[in-house]
Amino acid sequence: MIYFRRSLYALAAFLFCFFSVISEAEESFQEPITEADFYEFPFVLSATRLEQPINESPAAVTIISRDMINASGAHSIADIFRLAPGMVVGFDSGYSPVVAYHGLSSSYSRRMQVLVDGRSVYEPSFGGVDWASLPLSIDDIDRIEIVRGSNAATFGANAFLGIINIITRDAILDDGISINTLTGSRGTTINSFRYGGELWERTDFRFTVETQDGDGLKDLNDDYQINTVKLRMDSNLSQHDFFSLQLGVANSDVEHAAGFLSPKTIQDSSTDFIQASFSHDLGGGDEFSIQVFRNSDREKENWQSGEVFYDRDALKLRKEIEAQHIAAVSPDSRLVWGVGVRQDEMVDEPTFNTGERLKISMRRLFWHVESHLSKRLLLNAGLMYEDHSWVEAKASPRLAFNYMLDEGHGVRFSISRAYRNPTMFEERVDMRFKTVSGVELFQLFDADGNIEPEVIDAYELGYFIGVPEIRGNFDIKLFQDEIDKLIRPYFDMTNSVLSFRNRDSAKIRGLELQLDSQPYKRTSIFASYSFTEIDSDDLDGNYSQSAPKHKVSFLGSYKFDNGLQTGLVYHYVDEMEWLGTNDPLDAYDKLDLNFSRQYKLDEFEAEWQIAFQGLSGRYADFDNNVVFDRGLYVSINLRH
Q1: Hey, which residues does 244 pair with through a beta bridge?
Q2: Pick from 418, 444, 100: nearest CA to 262
Q3: Which DSSP string do the residues of 448-507 spell out, in sequence order?
Q4: CB–CB of 270/251 below 8 Å?
Q5: By CB atoms within 10 Å of each CB, which of 29, 98, 236, 481 scores lowest?
Q6: How far is CA 100 from CA 90, 128, 290, in A?
């Protein structure tokens, strides 16, 4: 029965494409050809730090545009990433997502770097990203670039399996007032206010306030409340100088269900950041830029269960400064190089059994060269050298060749080596539980220390083609990732505690397909498929089952004459098991459908949207006890 149902969903997606294309075909054939009808490859920045057409990138890249975000009907940032081939998303509660690429992930996704406007939001203590308390509104996002493959040569050790770079809109694009409200299933409400304009000559700003509330999932204690305030200011200081300043604060109160030791609890978190960047156009294609940021995260949790008393007030800081220089070495070659210094600090007595401020420092030097060796052959070569305070300095190189078989299509081959440094938790954890009076009851975690970085040798063979007839591009990726010294927890029988060690290895191989197309002016289609196979001895975890073997995603949107727009999203995810859950998931699918329409009301622009999510029925995407059902969400937006 389930295969019949999935066939119906696949048929629905096909019919969506067929009828939307047919409905425009006659009209389109009668229209004169214009410059807009000629297709050009989109540009990406995140693969090398150089702006390149996607067909000249040394790695496979997925671009999620603002239009795709709107057409998906998603109100959670993490849900958008389901579209990328090889990427899976799971919710371990009604508000807390986990995003992973090529598996090997627990509730903390430690092997993928996440950037917001170039600022790392990777959590330095436990690893991963706390998506729920990120000071970011989905409506501020301009586009998302996902580099599907190891990218440590460009962005450092934690870009082990790939990176997500979220790019927000320039402040000048949000002139005026925007008010948005969303309400829907599971007690979800999201209210946002946005105001932007010219602060003074050649200086624009955007101010965003957003509140989110939800009741979580049925039978789970996972209510949440999240408040976010963010300011962005962009200034063209001169014809050649640009300055940007961003500030953000997010406060969240989230419920945690009863755990192994703890009762139902509420965690209070406060996250803030400040980020400043400056760039100077040196002329002739040369540019100098510098960026500095500071992230701060404070978490409070207090509970008592029997004799066990837990009182946590943790502070985590990340500070970084980075400078880079782009130089046009010759008419056929460009170079980007730079230096950076980062320091992570944290105070977390219950986790590390000390009230001292623990520190990790890191210094790095990077460079990347892009050179057209001939009319058809392009070389991309890069190196990241990192000196970490805990581990021996490492160099992460990458070498890639793109060969144009003909105008609009070609092949790429890349080989790289990268490392993932251990987190503070993996290296220094010393978690002990005590009574109210401070008497130690037992020790749960005790790190061995001296953990070596994980290492990956990644190989990629790709074929890309631009198809002007459908205003789109098609990408095929064959890959093999050989990973050694995997860091995983194990039970130390001698001391009866959990600890971490390097022991296991994994070989990941597979195939990824991606199509991004606008066959007609009102119709957009994005489709992806991935086949992933993991071979591991599974000594310290079920690595071989940590990624779905097959995954399919589809997004189609169509705009009618009267301003109505519809979007259809379908995902199929094969069976898998997230690390640490010991809870295999059955294959599941997810079908979403949404409708929206824009109006002009005097001086106001108005838009409503109705989104139906999970029309295919109940599914679990992380834990079989965390089950999602059908949902309905209605939003209204007013702009002036």
Answers
A1: 234, 277
A2: 444
A3: ---PPPEEEEEEEEEEEEEEGGGTEEEEEEEEEEEEEEEEEEEEETTTTEEEEEEEEEEE
A4: yes
A5: 29
A6: 9, 10, 30
Three-class SS of residue 22? Answer: helix
The answer to whether residue 36 scores a pLDDT higher than 70 is: no
pLDDT tens sequence across 199-244: 888 999 999 999 999 988 877 888 899 999 999 999 999 999 999 9
Residues 89 and 79 sit within 8 Å (Cβ to Cβ): yes
Give mean pLDDT, residues 291-310: 93
Q: Transcribe 560-580 into DSSP letters.
A: -TTSEEEEEEEEEE--B--TT
Residue with tokens 């955007």: 206
CA 225 to CA 215: how far, in whole Å? Answer: 9
**CB of 320 closer than 8 Å to CB of 292:** yes
Contact 163, 277 (CB under 8 A): no
Is the CB of residue 534 less than 8 Å from the CB of residue 543? yes
- Distance between CA 320 and CA 342 in Å, rounded? 4
pLDDT given for residue 294 in this prediction = 97
CA-CA distances (angstroms) from residue 277 to 146, 166, 234, 280?
Answer: 22, 16, 10, 10
Give me the phi and psi of 26, to 5 degrees please. Answer: -60, -45
Instruction: Give me the sign of the Cα torsion angle 140, 146, 151, 152.
Output: positive
Q: How confident is the model at residue 107 (pLDDT cuts 50, 70, 90)?
A: confident
pTM of the predicted model as reported, rounded to 2 decimal places:
0.93
Instruction: Determine the topology of domain 2-639 in CATH.
Output: Maltoporin; Chain A (2.40.170)
Beta strands in 54-169 (DSSP E): 60-65, 87-91, 97-101, 113-116, 119-120, 141-148, 162-168
Cβ neighbour number for residue 270 with a 10 Å cutoff: 16
* pLDDT > 90? residue 11: no
Segment 378-400, tens digit of pLDDT = 999 999 999 999 889 999 999 99
For residue 18, give the H/E element and its range.
helix 2-30
DSSP lists the bridge partners of residue 113 as 163
Residues 6+ apart with CB under 8 A from 561: none
The more confidently predicted of residues 473 and 492 is 473
pLDDT band at 495 (very low <50, low <70, confident <90, very high): confident
**Average of per-residue pLDDT across 80-103:** 93
Give the pLDDT confidence of 625-634 residue by residue, as tens digits: 889 999 999 9
Distance set, CA 7 to CA 11, 14, 51, 522, 572 (Å):
6, 10, 41, 26, 11
Using CA atoms, how far apart are residues 248 and 281, in angstroms rounded to an integer?
Answer: 28
